[in-house]
Amino acid sequence: MNRIVEKEVISVVKEISLGAAIALVVFLLWQGYDVIPILMLAGMGLAVYFIAETKGVLKPVALGNKVTVNPLTFDDIGGQGMAIQELVEALDFMVNQDAVKQLGIRPLKGILLTGPPGTGKTLMAKAAANYTHSEFMATSGSEFIEMYAGVGAQRVRKLFRGAREQAKKNGKRSAIVFIDEIDVVGGKRGRNTSHLEYDQTLNQLLVEMDGMKTDDQTQVLLIAATNRVDMLDPALLRPGRFDRQVKVDLPDRDGRKQILSLHIKNKPVAEDVKLEELAKETFGFSGAQLESLTNEAAIYAMREESQLIKSCHFRDALEKVMLGEKLDRKPNLEDLHRVAVHETGHALLSELVRSGSVSSVTVTPRGQALGYMRQNQEEDSYLYTREYLEDKIAVLLAGALAEETVLGNRSTGSAGDFQQAVDVAKRIILAGMSPLGVVAEDCLTQDVLRGAVAEIITGQEARVRADLEGYHQVMGQVVERLLEEEKLSGEELRNLLKGSVAA
């Protein structure tokens, strides 16, 4: 309401000023004065005003908007138990201000939330404001940067001043300022040599953080989030500014199950949906992707006019989140047969490497993929042996080698697999698991690195050819079923393999 009244007042002032200017020009003309110089100056002034207003310099800055949605608590955030515990310990310094003063403890000035996108950093900042009963002001790093020098620094001052005023107005002792994507404004100084506005804005942010004192009537805590902590200026990360860095990482299996259970509370889910299985199949998913998974499953159920969200809807939603929506374009029969052979090669070798690893195989185009073989993750793993990585390379190469074995040649569809295989081979080398021993990438010449990668890839190619040699018949059966049904589950694939082995 105040913003509307402000706009109306500005409009009335503009109209009065314009009327007065026209009256002045008419009066000067009547008195016989030459008004051409005055009109030229007025035109130049209007042009400058128009340009400044267009670029946003004279527009109200929407910084520190207060969130008016239902209060968010830490109980509403799943899969981040350790991060929440660490954050709450830091926030207790803000809650127990009297004890902090008695013990002479310097209050925390900043908390930095780091981690991949979609892991809940913004949600944790909102929950922190509710936990500490603080005023919450949120903005983004991009809001501070303009082409005009000094605008960013001015907006930083306005943001912190507004947080204190808003907290005082609402009778609160503290305020939390949240800056998302702080790497935009807090990047290392000197990287933008042609545009010092970034450095000036960062300098003002550092000054504001230094100005937070224990005896302030309103305590302000800065919480920032980024997924590029390596880009931040060291002066921003030192103690006394960002005193705590909280790692908000991708959730593990139990965390994914907890997040899924939170997002299906308001959804009618069928009994055949097993959250344990979904959590197992979503290794590497962030909280945002898990929320999207449950939402897409509900959309699939609505399309089929189903009253319940079933496991088949979750399977379709899982593939959509990972690969994209199904495409209308259909490959011709020759290309479709090649895609089926390619994906069969991946699936067959995956089963040979680890039985029960294939979740599904499809030749339905999705996103950038003409076909796809999806694997089950047995356990959340964070350390890998050379044998594990070599098995991964073998599965990646199996598609192209299956084409070569069945069709006599390869295609460009294997380019992505080859790139991934090379990346895994480099990982083996840089982890010190190759004949080169412990090496640093900077110390390797391109020829040496290329030769080591080629040795690993060549060895796995020979292994895959030998493994596929005795499975020509079953590969033909799987390809035929894929062409008929477009998709096979892991169980159907394993039944075909068992029948072939028994025969």
Parts with pLDDT < 50 across at least 5 consecutive residues = 1-9, 54-62
CATH class of the largest domain: Alpha Beta
Mean pLDDT: 83
Q: What percent of residues adopt helix (DSSP H or I)?
A: 40-55%
Radius of gyration: 31 Å
User: Oligomeric form of this entry?
Assistant: single chain
Tally of domains = 4
Please list the strands of the largest sheet in the order they lie side by side: 1-3-4-5-2-6
Number of helices: 18
The portion of residues forming beta strands comes to 5-15%
Distance between the termini: 79 Å
Class per helix and strand makeup: alpha/beta
So what's the overall shape?
elongated
Compose a concise summary of this entry.
With 503 residues, this protein is of the alpha/beta class. The protein has helices at residues 2-30, 36-54, 81-95, 97-102, 121-131, 151-169, 197-210, 234-237, 253-263, 275-281, 287-303, 311-323, 333-353, 386-407, 415-430, 446-468, 472-485, 490-502; strands at residues 65-66, 110-114, 135-140, 174-180, 219-226, 244-247, 358-362, 372-375, 487-489.
Structural features, described:
With 503 residues, the chain is α/β, with parallel strands linked by helices. 54% of the residues lie in helices and 9% in strands. The strands form 2 sheets. Strands 1-3-4-5-2-6 form a 6-stranded mixed beta sheet, with helices on both faces. Strands 8-7-9 form a 3-stranded antiparallel beta sheet. Helix 13 (333-353) packs across helix 17 (472-485), helix 14 (386-407) packs antiparallel against helix 15 (415-430) and helix 17 runs antiparallel to helix 18.
